Amino acid sequence: MTKYKMHILVCGGPGCSASKSEQIAANLRSHLQQEGLEKEVNVVLTGCFGFCEAGPIIKIMPDNVFYVKVQPEDAKEIVNEHIIKGRMVERLLYTEPSNGQKTPLDTDTDFYKKQVRIALRNCGLIDPENIEEYIALDGYKALATCLTDYTPEKVIEIVSASGLSGRGGAGFPTGRKWAATAKSKAEQKYIVCNADEGDPGAFMDRSILEGDPHSVLEAMAIAGYAVGADKGLIYIRAEYPLAIHRLQIALDQAREKGLLGKDIFSTGFNFDIELRYGAGAFVCGEATALIHSMEGLRGEPTMKPPRTSDKGYLGMPTNVNNVETYANVPAIILKGADWFSSIGTENSKGTKVFALAGQIKNVGLIEVPMGITLREIIYEIGGGMKGGKKFKAIQTGGPSGGCLTEKHLDIPIDYKSLSDAGSMMGSGGMVIMDESSCMVSIAKFYLDFTVEESCGKCTPCRIGNKRLYELLDKITQGKGTMEDLDNLRNLSHVIKDTSLCGLGQSSPNPVLSTLDNFWDEYVEHVKEHKCRAGVCKALMKYEINPEVCVGCTACARNCPVNAIKGEKKQAHQINQEACIKCGTCMEKCKFGAISVK
Amino acid sequence: MEMEQLVNLTIDNKQVQVAKGTTILKAAASIGIKIPTLCYYELKGQGIENKPGCCRVCVVEVEGKGNLAPACATNVSEGMVVKTHSLKVVNARRTVVELMLSDHPASCLTCAKSGKCELQTLAQELGIRDITFKGEQSTYRKDLSPAIIRDVNKCIMCRRCETVCNKLQTVGALSAVNRGFMAVVATAFEQDLAKSPCVMCGQCVQACPVGALAEVDHTRQVINALNDPKKTVVVQTAPAVRVAIGEEFGLTPGTRVTGKMAAALRRIGFDYVFDTDFAADLTIMEEGTEMLGRIDKYMKGDKSVKLPIMTSCCPGWVNFFETYYPDMLDIPSTAKSPMQMFGAVAKSYWVEKLGIKREDMVVVSIMPCVAKKFECQRDEFKTDGNPDVDYSLTTRELAELIKQFNIDFNSLPDEDFDNPLGASTGAAVIFGATGGVIEAATRTAYELFTGKTLEKVDFNELRGMDGVREATVDFNGTPIHIGIAHGLGNARKLLDKVKEGKEFFHAIEVMACPGGCVGGAGQPYHHGDFTKVERRFAAIYEEDKDKPLRKSHENPYIQQLYKEYLGEPCGEKSHHLLHTHYFDKSDKVEFVKE
Amino acid sequence: MAQIKTLADLQAVKERVYATMKTRVEAFDKSLSQIRIAMATSGISAGAKEIFDYMIEKTDERQIKAVITQTGVIAEGNNQPVVVEVVMPDGQSKIYENVDKKSADAIMDSLKA
Predict the structure, then answer these.
(1) Helix (H) or strand (E) run with residue B534 in it
(2) According to CATH, what is the number of the domain B1-135?
(3) What is the structure's pLDDT at C6?
(4) In whole angstroms, what is the distance from residue B116 CA to residue B236 CA?
(5) In whole numbers, what is the pLDDT of chain A averaged over residues?
(6) Catalytic residue at B118?
(7) Number of domains in chain A
(8) ipTM confidence score
(9) pLDDT confidence of residue A2
């Protein structure tokens, strides 16, 4: 077999794929072939590198040089310059925002420096469509170890001792969940992987499934051994075709190798996995709703207890964990509980993958140890605020998380500290906002999502969230009253207290956290009819300064609703009732006579 | 024997000890604390409990828990401390009901359920005078089937109808559709109910706490007929009505008001106040004869004859087997239901007697039933487009009519039905309870089969409230196996056993509603208090016991009818007037399976 | 594909495939020393490529744990042909100039100790 001298890793993550990374890989291969280097240099299309801001990215190993925003046409130059002549292609190097320096080694970038990759350990490093590359990096060794050296009790003990907890949002201790399912007595038990990633902007589960599918398959088999289940199900959104494709390949290869199926590692242990497709309903991330959906019933949650560990899929004990949780398991088995629990905080062990988005320089997928501060994430990994604007808020935990502010930036983050601060870990969404964001509008934006995604089963979530949305809308229209603000708070608390499942119990978080942290902004909307961020159109007022207006009529001619009147060469006026705040007049005025308040 | 585990807890500062697995709701009820509920609906003893925990009206505070717990769906645990009316609870409960009202049409004045609406009652009990959260209301189209109106705007997603339709009746016409704010219970693809697999049993109407499901109202048509001088308006009342209608006038469930009811009907202005019970006796003559004939042929080895014979007087049940068991259409008795037999006799025998034209007679039936509204509209029960029974009213509609006619029901004297079509035996009365039809048939069949006088008319082995019952009756040495089911889910269980050849029965009685007609969908709303149905059930048998004649074939007016008009049971004329046939409606189910 | 039925089977696959991926994976391993060979135009013309290939081959043969990478110009103004920089895991680095196969052996030996 060929011992490649070099490897060119091409990111095949969702963002980079969209920017033709497959074409880049193909071009690299053909240029290498032209130069007769195909036996020396291996081109691998991998899973997501995480650094989506700079995509499409390729990495040249072992040099560890990474090129950003690569185009398919750049392939030739990369082969000729870097591979053949050993000269880096300067123009494709990454420029560190903190110091403006070209930074060829990705390990030196602020983006990667503080990251600790456990769940994402193989993403961007291996070819996800080749099981042997996974095996080469100790894949399936954890399963072999469990089956041959450990009792199921011992496996649960290790997972419990590691302190791993559910990465899907609630943070329930994984070991306890496994132990509960193991304790339930039944003819048939199931291992379910929740791959119904529903948070807008979150794509860690997708990245793991696309970049390292075997880590999840292996972990599910380990879980099956630990709890006494021989059947696994992956509930995945049908909107993830690439992840489904890679999972199918992974399943086929694992079965061919005998790593799934009957008598695995000649131990008599049987385990196989099926895929189930979801329609991508946010609420189906809730375990009971997910199970109902898999059973062909309406995707809505039911009261717990019974927990799924007692009565889950088809009424049988079922262990449900999400993708990222499973992805941690093989590493824990191989490196030990102590290693894992040494990372993180008192309350939360290990790492968490976050999807960074919003007004920061480096958006992308990051994996950081628990206990890191938001400040480190925003200013070091994230490279700080875009365009030099001032940080205003960070929304964590997906659509039902809360908005945190400057004063929360130095809290070491874990499940508890985020929840104490009025937000949550959730599945790991992080949206960073600057002063151009109106916090009332932000709360409204998230409520719009929960209204859309509520299953409609319980009254507070079905109707309450709609009413929250309407109240917020009223405030952004400048029609809110101080009483509305009280009602907003009371209703939020009632929805949290009375909703049936986690969706409703957390959906008012964006409202409550913005009421707490940005109260003045709400009051401004209500009392002064003012939106300081200039987002709420209804509160904007365009005015013509009669001192400056020369009466050129450009504004009046361009106004789409004929809201501007005035004689030629006379100062014009805007009819505020008719104005739709489109801003055309201001754009068209050559004399700077029009301003917005 | 296993000891029942007991759990100690505190509810509103009171100590209470209940069995493990009890809900907070029931634990509270056991010490007289009534926690308001809305989506919770139980048919006690029938294995039906709707507790999705979705309305969130019954939330209570459980010490140590962050959020509030629904009492109906939360089990007690040792040392639990529950508060059912803390400030937090009362605020939440009020807010939740206000939210419901904010998405509910305020059309109480003209709502079918007004005065009986559980949401209305709740709003009153919680003192809601203003709705804080006003906003958009979800809107849907209204859907009318021949028997049931769905006014989906009023749906509060309690899922009670869904549970009875799917779990109790296994019909599966209703389920939750749409998501979020637009979520409601509806038919698949929101098709018309009439085109869905709905069998019109109406248990959804009985279960619906609000006006989202109601029967189609026919009182106006009846009033118009009464006001038409050209029409002779004849009324017949089903056996189960007389033990239930009193509830609408504040009487205890199970109060027998047969005489007052007859008096009320007369005061409303019906020309003849007759009794469906008369036709029930007639049904026994026909069905009993058919049954004996089939059993006789079967025993003699005639392979063309199939057993069991199944009763066919329940229209929900007829729709059910036409929809779900089209391969078994030759098994049910061909005898029409008592209501339709009455109509057929009234519009032939009785018009002849009166010397009037068929078109000038209007037959109104008072039924404990919603499906009867559909049955009387079936084409096979019409002559030249004129139906044998013109209008079928529910027990509730009759009560409304009595109120509209300003009749003080409770102070009415007891009056008798008119003759000849008002005379009946005890065997006819028990048609109103599960097991009653088959018991009535047995009383007559026994004597016809054995030629002996039946000494003990009470067949206790056929009575009871269990969903599926089996009994063997000794016909003078010949064992006759009888199966009984009430609730269509139970009927399905029994029928599947027969279909798979697991059990053999000579005869089977099925009633679509739990408890039989006493628990009918057209009866006064019991709001999930099934003891009301049980009391009506007991009253039926009391009524039977008090009757001087208790076997259908002893009814002298029935004997006279055969002598004067029909000839003999299952004879040519009877066959023409009193028997029917069934249709394959399974294509309705196929659509849903898609 | 042959079935993997024992830990030994698994280990065999691992070793076979790992060898092909070594240069990719070990670059991430900070516990390994790095041998960086300057491959700017001057270096290549002076035979840096041969030294590069030679060292890749020999480190494997001699089982020396090190990552061999190519890089651009090492140290400003240095125009000595074939420059090799060895970076130890602790960050200390040493620059060798005029490297030929013989001195390459010596460099590798120094890492073995």
Answers:
(1) helix B531-545
(2) 3.10.20.740
(3) 93
(4) 26
(5) 92
(6) no
(7) 5
(8) 0.93
(9) 64
